[in-house]
From TrEMBL:
Family, as annotated: Belongs to the dymeclin family.
GO BP field: Golgi organization
Keyword tags: Lipoprotein, Myristate
Name of the protein in question: Dymeclin
Pfam families attached to this UniProt entry: Dymeclin
PANTHER family per record: DYMECLIN
Species this protein is from: Coffea canephora
One GO term describing the cellular component: Golgi apparatus
Amino acid sequence: MGGVPSTPRWGGAAEMRPAETAEYLIGALVGEKSYPLASDYWQKLLESPLHLRWPAHRVLQASQLFAQNNCKTRHLAKILVHLAWCLQECVSASGVPSAALVRALNALYISSVFLKYFIENAKSDHFEELHLSLDENEAKPTSFSKDQTIEQLVMHSVLSFLGKVDVSTNTYLLHHELLNFMLIAMSTQLLSGPSPGPDDSHPFIDAMMVQESSLVSLVVSKLLLNYIRRPNFPIDSSSYSIFSEVNQTGVLQRVGSAAANFVLLPFNLFVGSTGEATRSPLAENSLNVLLILIHYRKCIETDYVKDRGDHSSEPLPKEDACFSENPYCKALENAQDIEFDRLDVEGNVQNGPLVRLPFASLFDTLGLYLADERSILLLYSMVQGNSAFLEYVLVRTDLDTLLMPMLETLYNASRRTSNQIYMVLIILLILSQDSSFNASIHKLMLPNVPWYQERLLHQTSLGSLMVIILIRTVKYNLSKLRDVYLHTNCLATLANMAPHVHRLSAYASQRLVSLFDMLARKYNKLAEMSNNKMHMPNGESREEDNLPEDTTAELHIYTDFLRIVLEILNAILTYTLPRNPEVVYAIMHRQEVFQPFRNHPRFNELLENIFTVLDFFNSRMDAQKMDGEWSVEKVLQIIVINCRSWRGEGMKMFTQLRFTYEQESHPEDFFIPYVWQLVLSCSSFSFNPNSINLFPVDLPLEKQDSFVGEDGQKLQSGGLNGLEQQVDVLV
């Protein structure tokens, strides 16, 4: 009468009683007896009402017994084959039959539970304990292709259903659980180290990588459309044949304990307490799966690896690593707008099928959900990899749709992850590489910015707000994070924007000058520390100095930062001074902060133009006969009047700074762990933390930054776990 079944039940030898059919069928699945693939046992199992609510310890016991016997029974391989067949039936039928739907769901639920246990508890490097093959003595079905593995068969069927069968009232649950199954199947990555190697084994995700390009395109398109359309779970469960009381067939229920790790969402998660759909798990899971697929990299064996021999235990040097092409990444990068096919217009021929998407809908959906870190990563993947989508974004007149949520993320940097901040800054840097973007953001006026608390911002241009937020991010970083990589990105974006600044607001102009002042004070402090260090007797040290290991290197870094800020001011004054009187006012108001650097050998040439401007406007101010004190309004009025007569005489022309973002050659060391961290933290998917080797569990990802600067000509920041930025001055 206890909660744990007796041995005969697990073995399936006892006679089945109708009331315990599900109990006996599951017992037979995990037991010692092997049922041939063609046995009618499988039909009974998949067509039975598996309404089982087992506690965690019973699920664990069943999983352990299944793992013990699977090497002889090969039942995991067999139920995966039946899952593939059920899905094939669903795809081939004109309408998904109710009976086929139930069999597919039952096969999916059962295989998901046990596959997840196998992966989490895998002991071998190549997952041999899965035994994804049929016994040699068992007759192979005629439907089996000669060279097709079971993992290729099942993943082909899963992808075919997802790509070819539309999401409807009747198929929603199967679509969703197939995405859950894919997460489980791809979770073998969690057991590998952070850097992909030629010995890594991921049987299911590798099987997805060898599918035909037409199917890959269908899947990428469907996943993105799910994200865009965000289909909700049907509220009226009676319309679902598998929930209908008329049809007694049921599905295996989710165990109500996290320890069981079924990863199957209960019905009430789809529907809120009010009966209204509160979220779209299908859209979220589609995004999870898409991000994992597009950022996967398969390291393949090269001649160098073969020459080393199997006895070598040294890790493969990065420069010798070779990766196979990722068809999902390629499909995303080649996706075109459904409304406009540039390739057809230009008369070019595109090899293979194209993913066609409604870019307008994708743009709007991203704007709505950029608070979700996964959406930020999707936007990065699109603008960095897909030139057609980047061009589409740049010609939109409502750029605030994307920029406002990203700027709000930077504003709330203290409550965001460092990787989320980096992704946003890289996206802004990519956008700022386009001159039309830099011009258009200053034409778009914002009536107010409700989330900006320091002061009221009324009728501020989007460009001015972007300058304010980027400078605020630099200041926050200087006081809290002290991250060179972040500084580099912010200043590079500001430098790209500078030649196109138009009517920068008073507040943004003040912030720009105060940024120079802040960096100047930091530079002076480092210079003083460095001088003191050089003049101290050998062997002497003072603990209170608390000097960095290499003060000189840090001094060089801030020298480059100051030069970039001076280049920014030079670009505004050289190319857009008549349209920016507030910048002139801010420089005049704080002109004393520039004076100490006027004769500095590293800065004097960049300060010549600033003092030329100061001399011009100071002389105009001195020429005015003024009764009483000067007011801000009066000074600004004189500046505006004299801006009209400004001809730029005596100004030295410098080469415009142009910074570009370049992803490093091996970004997978960052992206693969990052994507899985997002999946585990932002979704219902869970995994045994003791089994995770992909990243440190409960520890933040470490960053290692390096900074190289030479006369302001090249700034490079590596690290970010493989994401590297190279910023170059294009002469």
